[in-house]
Structure formats: C-alpha cells, structure tokens
Amino acid sequence: MQLRYHYRVYPTSGQREALARAFGCARVVFNDGLRARQTAHEAGEPYLSDGDLSKRVITEAKRTPERAWLGEVSSVVLQQALADLNVAYRNFFASLSGERKGCKVAPPRFRSRKDHRQAIRFTRNARFKVLDNGRLRLPKIGDLAVRWSRTLPADPSSVTVIKDAAGRYFASFVVQTSDEPLPPAESEVGIDLGLTHFAVMSDGTKITAPKFLRRAARKLRRLQQDLSRKKRGSNNRAKAVVKVARAHARVADTRRDWQHKLSTQVIRDSQAVYVEDLCVVGLGRTRLAKSVHDAGWASFVGMLEYKAARYGRTFARVDRFFPSTRRCSECGRINDKLPLTVRSWECSCGAAHDRDVNAAINVLAAGRADNSNDRGAQVRPPAMVAPRGEAVIHPDAACSTRSVEGISVF
User: Fold this and answer.
1) Quick check: helix, strand or coil at residue 143?
2) How far is CA 128 from each of CA 1, 17, 34, 77, rounded to the nearest angstrom?
3) 101/316 Cα distance (integer angstroms)
4) Is 84 one of the annotated active-site residues of the chain?
5) pLDDT in tens, 77-136
6) How far apart are CA 363 and CA 48, in angstroms?
7) 273, β-bridge pairs
8) What's the pTM value of the predicted model, to 2 decimals?
9) Residues 70 and 62 sit within 8 Å (Cβ to Cβ)
10) 2 has which bridge partners?
C-alpha cells in the first residue's frame, strides 16, 4: 500500500527564492504543453504524444532565449509538470468515453501565478535524499530543515514540496508500506452520520459534531471584513489574504486531526465497519451546505476505508437509498416517512426506537448481509427511491440523495 507522509519544512530566504523559481518553471511548462495541444487541436492536427510534447516544451524550449531560464531548475520538476498534464488529459478522455465513473471531468486549465497553492514533485531520478542530520536535500534548492513528527517506514519513492495559501511549506513523501494487521476484535459497528451528532454507533454511542467552522465563524467574519476594506493590489491586502488563509488552515487542520483520532479509534475497536454511502455532492447544494461541508463526512469515511485496508479490518458502504431510518430494526417493517423533527418513534410491533441508533443498527445489519452473501442473492428488500422533497434538493441538482439522519437546522 502506498501512503503519504506529510512534514513541515522551513526553507531559508534563499531556498524560498529557489522554490519560487521552481514553482514558476513548472507552471510555465504545464501551460506551454496545454497551449501546444490546444493549438494542434484547433488546427486539426493529430494529438501530440507525450514524448513529442516533452521534446517541444522542455528540450527545444531550453535552447531558445525566451525559455533558457528553464535550465535553472531540476529537469525532473519540469517532466513531472508535464506528467500531471498528461494524467489530466487521460482522465478527461476517460470521462468522455464513460470509462471513468462519477461526475464528468473537465479538460485541464491553465495554471495561474496568482494561485495561492503551489507544488512541485521530485522522483528518485532527481536523486533527492534525506540526510543523516535530518535535512532534505533537493537538487538546485539545497538542504531543507524538516520537522520530523515521526520516522518514515521505508525509503520514499517521491517527494512533493507544497506551499499552501497560508505561506507554509510541506514535504509530502510517497512510501510503499506493507499491511500491519491488528489483533482480531470481537465487535462490529454500523455508523450513521449526521449533523447534530457527527456519528451514531450501532451500540448506542453518540459522538457530538465538533462544528469547527461554526466555532471559528466570528473570527473568520472579522478577518473577511478587514480584507474587504483593503485596496486591491496593495501590500496590506496581501497580508490580509494570508491572515484569512491561516485562519481557514487552522480550522482544516483541527478537523483533520480530530477525524484521524476518531477513525483510528473506530478501526482499532471494531473488526468490521459499515457506513452509509452519502451523496455529499448533492447535500452540498442544499440549504444545509455549510454544515455539511463543516462536518467533513467524505474525508472521515475515506480515512476509515484506507485504515481498514491497512490494518486488516472489513469496511463496506451501505446503499444510500437503503431506508435505514424508517426500517424497524426489530421486525423489519418499513414505516412511513419520518420528519426530521421526529427523533424517536414507536413501531407497530411495540418496539421503541431512537431515530439515529435505529438507523445505525440497520446499517450494521445491511452491511453484514452484503458482506456475508458470497453468491450474490438478494438478501434484503431492494433499494427504494427517496421522496422528492425529502432531501430539500434544488431542482437543478445533478445528484439525487436522501435525507441525512440527525440534521438540525442552523
């Protein structure tokens, strides 16, 4: 399994200039390659192959006075910029032909020097090296000071140097690691995701949503107001932009750290984890979009998925149209639609249910049924289409979805 390990790096002023030069050269090569392919397409010429494109925008361009400064940076950085362009085109063509699942992928766009996030990548061909003193040696940049929060489990195959909108620098190593199975656990868990409670477990445990963005809203509002008063193009406006970016980065970092801790705890305590397959894209178009994005369900589920694969646990997603809320976990009867204001209800069989806990129990049962059925037989009722107004989706929404359990209106 390939994993990424991120570390904070602290370049000197001269190294920051060298990195800025590398960022600019990589951007120019990417834009030159994109412009060459667009020009060839408009002229009716054949699609430029990867080799011809590299020869034109790197090898031959270095010999011209206009692009002679491309030789000041590592050639691997330029080749990797073209590799990113080639991958973007392949994804676009695969999306057009239907080979790539999911939403349609747009064609690649030109990179702007005003983008607040910049990145370059070094592979083993660049001969980067982690020195004995803990510094990261990069060609034509120098030895960067790295804050090692943990040791690398193996030699990295590549490293990406990233400058984010807050002006921070990071080194992201790609490492090939082997699976590390944990001791078997006796319990299995179904998880119902929501907004009032971030996650409700099938054993009745409820985890309150931290709402990191909501808690930082007052400070973010003040910083945005200060930014709006600054004159465009001024140095004060540039400083205000960095302050806003740092505040947002602090929120994102706090949320990511909390989700990592929670997902690790769930994987350690459970042999199998089953969650709902929510359509976050569709829910992000509703009146609850801000709360949905603040919750960060997609990143949390992604952490559960890769950690389960790494540590030998079972992970599965339950169909998003499975009526986990309206289905009685005792008798299996599917009741009528339940408004979001109804937090507990009683079935005709006499069972009393908490809305979220009942949904988590049904998610666990559905996940077990799908996981244990190796012959593909239908072991539960077919998926049901959600009522039209249940998810409060705009009429022009691209993805259909169902209501999210535990939503409260803010």
Assistant:
1) strand
2) 22, 19, 28, 12
3) 19
4) no
5) 999 999 999 999 999 999 999 898 878 899 999 999 888 899 999 999 999 999 999 999
6) 49
7) 189, 315
8) 0.81
9) yes
10) 176
